[in-house]
Design goal:
mainly alpha; about 0% strand; 3 helices; elongated
Length: about 70
Amino acid sequence: MLEAAVQGMGLMFISASYIHKQLQAGTLTAVLPAIQSAKKQLWAYYPKSAFTPLKTRMFIDHLKQQLATEQL
């Protein structure tokens, strides 16, 4: 999706922090900078297995807790 936007194939609604390099380089331009999402989202990808390491589970739980408290 990012590459499509850089190539001028359309608009995308994404956090400015994610596309900071492209904004600085001028390959993307903020069209409606005042419009922001009410929710913060995060995706965590890790291999599916019968065992999830404790440090991975704790990290994901920490992120979920932090995002929940920031949205209040």
